[in-house]
Amino acid sequence: MPDTTTGALARVVRGVAELRTRAGERCDLCGEEVPPDHRHLLDTGSTELMCACRACSVLFVEEAASEGRYRLVPERRVRLPKLDTTALGVPVGLAFFVTHRDGTVTAHYPSPAGATRWEADAEAWRELAAGCPPLATLEPDVEALLVNTARGQEHHWIAPVDDCFRMVAVVRTHWRGLSGGGRVWPAIEEFFAELTERQ
To answer: Which InterPro entries match (predicted)?
Structure first.
């Protein structure tokens, strides 16, 4: 005899998933539905990104100025000249670096399990920034130096951290097997090809 409870539960789960898909994303603060190009806030306590509707993003522009818990992620992207980041100890050619208000710099690189994080050498960062003045303009916690030198690529960007975590999601989505498979690198190249400068 078939298990009708399991079938009913599966239908409920599918129904909820379909409703969420139709409803779209919502603001993590007030629950308002947000458009695809919505802004993000960084919760500095948990270091998690939160979706924000227009009203909440405007509200937290002031919060960011007062160094509150939530920081509005900027939108600017700046393409930088080629940089030598080897002194920062990056074991791979695909990574991003985030400065913090206490002077530390964290390095992140994507993996099939998400972003791997470690503390970069602060002195090496200062030397790199001395040779590339735009790096001194990075907003702590919410902007990053995004680097792709893998497979002959040369991409160096000042980018919002939500772009960086989108790149991590691209890797997680397309990675197959031990070496990544045939889909991940074309997807990464497409991600970088679509980046455009904006202020």
So the answer is: DUF5947
